[in-house]
Specification:
Order of helices and strands: HHHHEEEEEH
Low-confidence stretches: 258-262
Shape: rod-shaped
Keywords: Signal
Number of domains: 3
Helix content: 55-70%
Protein name: DUF3450 domain-containing protein
Length: about 260
């Protein structure tokens, strides 16, 4: 009986130990599950954070890609523009070099032009002296002005040359125009107010303002010859024609013809 009781107590003790052990195992398993759940949650949180970083990095990479493409496009445009500017600069440099070569030859050109201009002025004065005396004083004054500007440092060489050419053009015009102007004519030592008239360089005449007397210039003798009365009225008409006071028409005027050689 005693043995049975002891066995029963032993069994009970074993059952109690197993129960305690089972309880401990269960508690340990609960702790492990909670720990696993916590670690899993941490992993999920870490994955979420990693995904956010990945998403952020992706967005940044897309922005950088767009910026890169924009920079590449701008670079291509700038390259085309720079090539264009380079061609313009090369062309401008070519023009500058050409202008510099011209500037370098200016002094040589001036050395040849300046003596020529003095010769042209001398020739112009000689021509006026030998020509019929149409506006003679005025023309000689023009020659003197040309000499003055040749000694004026403020007048450029090109401007000096231009004015000389203008003077030559004015001399050419005297030989082409029909013109009349007032002045004084010395007749037998007396100054007479007259209308001078010239038809080019073919006819140079004068008529008193009272329309009663007329004279014709003789280039060969460098003298004024009184005209016959038959030429007074035609000369009056010619003077009015030159001043556009009457319509152009045919008039009979005297002309000194060259003498035939014997």
């Amino acid at each position: 009986m005693t043995k049975v009781i002891k066995r029963t107590k032993l069994a009970a003790a074993l059952m109690g130990a197993m129960a305690v052990a089972g309880t401990s195992v269960a508690a340990a398993q609960q702790v492990d599950v909670a720990k696993l759940q916590k670690e899993e949650q941490q992993i999920l949180n870490a994955q979420e954070q990693s995904q956010k970083k990945i998403d952020s990095l992706y967005e940044q990479s897309q922005d950088l890609l767009i910026e890169y493409r924009s920079v590449v496009a701008e670079y291509e445009n700038l390259k085309v523009y720079n090539d264009h500017v380079a061609r313009l600069v090369a062309d401008q440099q070519s023009n500058i070099d050409s202008l510099q070569r011209q500037i370098d030859t200016i002094e040589e050109t001036k050395q040849g032009v300046v003596p020529l201009m003095y010769e042209m002025i001398d020739a112009l004065e000689e021509f006026v002296q030998l020509d019929i005396p149409i506006h003679k004083e005025k023309r000689l004054e023009r020659v003197e002005r040309l000499r003055d500007i040749m000694g004026n440092a403020n007048v450029s060489t090109s401007e000096q040359f231009r004015q000389i050419i203008e003077a030559y053009q004015a001399e050419m015009d005297y030989g082409q125009m029909l013109n009349a102007y007032q002045g004084n004519l010395n007749v037998d030592g007396e100054e007479v107010a007259v209308d001078f008239f010239h038809m080019g360089r073919v006819v140079f005449a004068a008529q008193s303002l009272d329309l009663k007397n007329a004279w014709l210039y003789n280039k060969d003798s460098n003298e004024w010859t009184k005209l016959e009365d038959e030429f007074v009225n035609p000369l009056t008409t010619a003077i009015r024609m030159s001043r556009k006071q009457t319509a152009y028409d045919l008039v009979k005027l005297p002309v000194f013809a060259a003498e035939s050689a014997e």
